């Protein structure tokens, strides 16, 4: 069956916008893109086409979110106005002590509902429980589920690796063409140098992608450069020896030969010019999460310089426990305005470049650009339809500019992944929203009664 999706505007990203356009999909792939009349004429031999007419809307590639934490969705609004160290410590306690496996499953599934409703078709999710992996599979989205590993004590490195292997071996039989697994040695302050080496060697043997939280905060910088600050104090209180290398996070990872696997480095707020050179040399990618970084007061990653020097940079929302929404349109607009305000350049990231950042550039950062990120014949059919009929979007002079400057995830009316409709503008078709909503509210009631923040 060939399905024809029509809209006032089709925004292929790889080519200019098409007015009164259409995208034809068969067997999960795009078979035609162009003006509706031309596409219909080209496919006339197929007889009657099933048509999904979006009307006054824009149809573009699905949004690619290169950093999320689906299992933390239930903690949205629960950890406000804390220092970064206290936020991490409280989050870890709530997740570990107050959220059972079933709670994490509900939390992750609700995160998938939110993402699908916002037109996000691909997520690079980081987690400890496997709940995000299962939610992506159940919800029909595309993604990489990076399984986190922790262990600042080198004496426990082999034990930590064994636990990671056990979790991955249990999940790998459930991998699909859409959802695969990865590994995430959490961060330099929570993973010993020995564990980094063991994990990277394992990732290479198993051909698993790697993601690392990196160069995120002043506290992390202090930990590495001077051996001071809350992370260093945390290790000292547990009797874990730490000798600071007195270099940046990215230099430290390079010296450990971690960058050889071309990891996705999450945040990279404090990257220096030397660091950017290392990213370029090794071919590492970066997940830029501007709203989360701003909320914690961490600063702004030098993404303009990264992009100028050829680093692959995608946009991520981070968890809704720190953002507080999973909306890549909102994230992209914030990134654009932040860059323009801080660099004094009102022409940075024009509309077309910003839409590409939300789609193709994210796919490139995850190594998926041969499959998704643009509306082109032969690519897999990950599509999103956005209404242009709401008052805040009228009038429309330039559909790309209207989309990236005024639309939000709430304007999405269609989400399709590999030709399958996930969200039809009314409800997510792959998960039962109302029972999930009730279970999430019950979980929130319990989490809200836990004292000690």
UniProtKB/TrEMBL annotation:
Keyword rRNA-binding: no
Domain spans labelled Amidohydrolase-related: 59-421
Coiled coil: none
One Pfam family it belongs to: HUTI_composite_bact
Domain of life: Bacteria
UniProt keyword list: Hydrolase, Metal-binding, Zinc
Aminodeoxyfutalosine deaminase/Imidazolonepropionase-like composite domain ranges (all copies): 21-42
Gene Ontology molecular-function annotations: hydrolase activity, acting on carbon-nitrogen (but not peptide) bonds; metal ion binding
PANTHER family documented for this protein: AMIDOHYDROLASE-RELATED DOMAIN-CONTAINING PROTEIN (PTHR43794:SF11), AMINOHYDROLASE SSNA-RELATED (PTHR43794)
Protein name: Cytosine deaminase-like metal-dependent hydrolase
Source organism: Chloracidobacterium thermophilum (strain B)
């Amino acid at each position: 069956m060939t399905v024809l999706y029509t809209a006032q505007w089709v925004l292929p990203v790889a080519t200019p916008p098409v007015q009164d356009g259409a995208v034809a999909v068969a067997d999960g792939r795009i078979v035609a893109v162009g003006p509706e009349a031309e596409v219909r004429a080209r496919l006339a031999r197929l007889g009657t086409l099933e048509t999904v007419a979006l009307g006054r809307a824009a149809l573009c590639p699905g949004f690619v979110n290169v950093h999320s934490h689906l299992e933390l969705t239930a903690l949205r609004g629960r950890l406000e106005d804390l220092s970064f160290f206290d936020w991490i410590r409280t989050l870890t306690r709530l997740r570990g002590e107050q959220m059972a496996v079933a709670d994490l499953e509900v939390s992750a599934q609700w995160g998938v509902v939110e993402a699908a409703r916002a037109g996000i078709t691909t997520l690079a999710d980081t987690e400890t429980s496997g709940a995000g992996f299962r939610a992506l599979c159940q919800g029909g989205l595309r993604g990489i589920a990076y399984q986190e590993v922790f262990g600042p004590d080198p004496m426990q490195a082999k034990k930590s690796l064994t636990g990671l292997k056990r979790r991955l071996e249990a999940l790998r039989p459930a991998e699909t063409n859409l959802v695969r697994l990865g590994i995430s040695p959490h961060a330099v302050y929570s993973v010993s140098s020995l564990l980094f080496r063991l994990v990277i060697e394992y990732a290479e043997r198993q051909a698993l992608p790697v993601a690392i939280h990196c160069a995120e905060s002043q506290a992390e910088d202090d930990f590495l450069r001077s051996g001071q600050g809350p992370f260093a104090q945390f290790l000292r209180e547990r009797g874990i020896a730490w000798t600071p290398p007195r270099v940046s996070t990215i230099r430290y990872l390079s010296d450990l030969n971690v960058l050889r696997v071309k990891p996705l480095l999450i945040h990279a707020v404090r990257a220096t010019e030397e660091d950017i050179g290392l990213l370029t040399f090794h071919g590492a990618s970066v997940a830029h999460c501007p709203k989360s970084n701003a909320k914690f007061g961490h600063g702004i990653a030098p993404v303009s310089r990264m992009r100028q020097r050829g680093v692959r940079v995608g946009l991520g929302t981070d968890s809704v426990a720190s953002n507080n929404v999973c909306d890549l349109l909102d994230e992209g607009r914030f990134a654009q305005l932040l860059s323009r305000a801080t660099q004094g350049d009102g022409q940075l990231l024009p509309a077309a470049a910003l839409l590409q950042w939300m789609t193709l550039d994210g796919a490139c950062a995850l190594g998926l650009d041969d499959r998704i990120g643009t509306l082109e014949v032969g690519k897999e059919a990950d599509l999103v339809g956005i209404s242009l009929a709401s008052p805040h979007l009228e009038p429309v002079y330039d559909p790309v500019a209207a989309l990236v400057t005024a639309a939000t995830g709430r304007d999405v009316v269609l989400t399709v992944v590999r030709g399958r409709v996930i969200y039809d503008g009314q409800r997510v078709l792959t998960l039962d929203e109302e029972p999930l909503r009730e279970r999430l509210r019950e979980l929130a009631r319990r989490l809200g009664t836990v004292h000690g923040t």
